[in-house]
Specification:
By secondary structure, the chain is mainly α. The protein is about 65% helix and about 0% strand. The chain has helices at about 5-10, 45-70, 75-110. The radius of gyration is 18 Å and the shape is elongated. InterPro entries: FliE.
């Protein structure tokens, strides 16, 4: 699968990175059974927690590269720029998903009243 980041890696500035699974999102198709009834296995929630851990990893990588860039230990500042953009995009996506979940929960509560 070709991604924009793998194209950058082909140039030689950054090694291609395998998708972290965060931007792929949780497996919502597997969260419901054949009849559309949600399963009680918790696999959907576990994948969301994995996505949050992935976000934390992206932010940690960005922070480490930022420290290296400031101290002069980083040979290529583009690595930090890419890591920072990835972390920012992942955080924005996480906030958007959280906001939609809160909106859906609020709507469900409103329908019950």
């Amino acid at each position: 699968m070709s991604t924009p980041l793998s194209a950058i890696g082909a140039i030689g500035a950054v090694a291609p990175v395998a998708p972290t699974g965060y931007l792929d999102g949780p497996d919502v198709t597997g969260a419901a059974g054949a009849a559309g009834v949600p399963s009680t296995s918790g696999a959907g929630f576990a994948s969301v927690l994995g996505s949050v851990e992935s976000l934390q990893g992206l932010q940690a990588t960005s922070n480490d590269l930022a420290v290296k860039a400031v101290t002069g230990d980083l040979s290529d500042v583009h690595d930090y720029t890419i890591a920072s953009a990835r972390a920012a995009t992942a955080l924005e996506l996480t906030a958007a998903v959280r906001n939609k979940a809160v909106e859906a929960f609020t709507e469900i509560l409103r329908m019950q009243a």
